[in-house]
């Protein structure tokens, strides 16, 4: 059997795709794979902020079209880039194990942590979620809008004279950059910065009815990550979220209990509401939706 996998062309996207292929091969060595690189609108338009060119789904549409048309069999995405409404012909298959959900500050060598940054330090990020949580924690910081792949953004510390930038830890770890970059790394724990819903989780998207693929992908399923994805994406759907407003969510699981923390802000960051709801592990989606309702009521 041969599986054609669609992927964006960035180093991180290809690393993630190859990670999935390696995991599948451990259980199904007889399956052959071909990677097809697909350019998306989000890759082509690099000079504008994401919320100005269409928000979530920008890195996905062209890939989904090829899935629907049968040009590829499987697509590997960062789940945090996925809209909550995927085309009805498609679905997410099994969810593999989550990488680190946190965000990280990549800091100029002069500083080791967020606490050492001087007043008025300049931090690069193109995300409203990151921007307004940083400012909520340290309102003296200056935020500079940046975009691009991981390497490009790291280079901007020098080229744009920044004191640091914010990235997803998952990308840094998957690319093996923790010990390779000449900067200090400071992990932002959830009390400072809630991640994007499903950050660090990969989405394996296939066409409905492809039982042959489901049977193969089941071998890399991780139950904990699946439940976290359900709760966090239910919250995202419940607040009707895109790239225009700051949204964060994190589901923690302890035995048969789950705790979902959600964050929603106004578009200009003038108000941010953060709440936590606890429930049973078998009502992940319900808890996510309920939390969204509570927070929406408070923000409006």
From TrEMBL:
PANTHER family: PORPHOBILINOGEN DEAMINASE. One of its GO terms (cellular component) is cytoplasm. Signal peptide: none annotated. Coiled coil: none annotated. GO terms for molecular function: hydroxymethylbilane synthase activity. InterPro entries: HemC, Porphobilin_deaminase_cofac_BS, Porphobilin_deaminase_N, Porphobilinogen_deaminase_C, Porphobilinogen_deaminase_C_sf. Monomer. Keywords: Porphyrin biosynthesis, Transferase. This is Porphobilinogen deaminase. GO terms for biological process: protoporphyrinogen IX biosynthetic process. Residues 3-213 form the Porphobilinogen deaminase N-terminal domain. The modification S-(dipyrrolylmethanemethyl)cysteine is found at residue 243. It catalyses: 4 porphobilinogen + H2O = hydroxymethylbilane + 4 NH4(+). Its cofactor is dipyrromethane. Binds 1 dipyrromethane group covalently. Its EC number is 2.5.1.61. The porphobilinogen subunits are added to the dipyrromethane group. Tetrapolymerization of the monopyrrole PBG into the hydroxymethylbilane pre-uroporphyrinogen in several discrete steps. The keyword Phosphoprotein does not apply. Residues 228-296 form the Porphobilinogen deaminase C-terminal domain.
């Amino acid at each position: 059997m041969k599986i054609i996998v669609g992927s964006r062309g960035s180093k991180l996207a290809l690393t993630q795709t190859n990670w999935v292929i390696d995991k599948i091969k451990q259980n199904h060595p007889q399956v052959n794979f071909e990677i097809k690189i697909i350019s998306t609108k989000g890759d082509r338009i690099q000079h504008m902020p994401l919320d100005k060119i269409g928000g979530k789904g920008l890195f996905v549409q062209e890939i989904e079209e090829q899935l629907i048309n049968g040009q590829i069999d499987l697509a590997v995405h960062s789940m945090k880039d996925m809209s909550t409404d995927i085309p009805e012909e498609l679905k997410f298959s099994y969810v593999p194990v989550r990488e680190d959900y946190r965000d990280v500050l990549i800091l100029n060598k002069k500083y080791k942590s967020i606490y050492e940054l001087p007043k008025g330090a300049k931090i690069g990020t193109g995300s409203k979620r990151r921007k307004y949580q940083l400012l909520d924690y340290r309102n003296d910081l200056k935020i500079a809008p940046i975009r691009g792949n991981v390497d490009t953004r790291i280079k901007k510390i020098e080229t744009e004279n920044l004191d640091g930038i914010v990235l997803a830890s998952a990308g840094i770890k998957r690319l093996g950059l923790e010990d390779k970059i000449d900067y200090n790394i400071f992990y932002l724990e959830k009390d400072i910065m809630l991640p994007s819903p499903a950050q660090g989780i990969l989405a394996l998207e296939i066409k409905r009815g492809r039982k042959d693929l489901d049977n193969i992908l089941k071998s890399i399923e991780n139950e904990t990550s699946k439940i976290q994805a359900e709760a966090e994406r239910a919250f995202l759907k419940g607040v009707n979220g895109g790239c225009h407003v700051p949204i964060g969510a994190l589901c923690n699981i302890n035995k048969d209990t789950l705790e979902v923390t959600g964050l929603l802000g106004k578009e200009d960051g003038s108000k941010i509401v953060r709440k936590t709801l606890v429930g049973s592990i078998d009502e992940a989606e319900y808890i996510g939706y309920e939390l969204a309702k509570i927070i929406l009521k408070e923000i409006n």
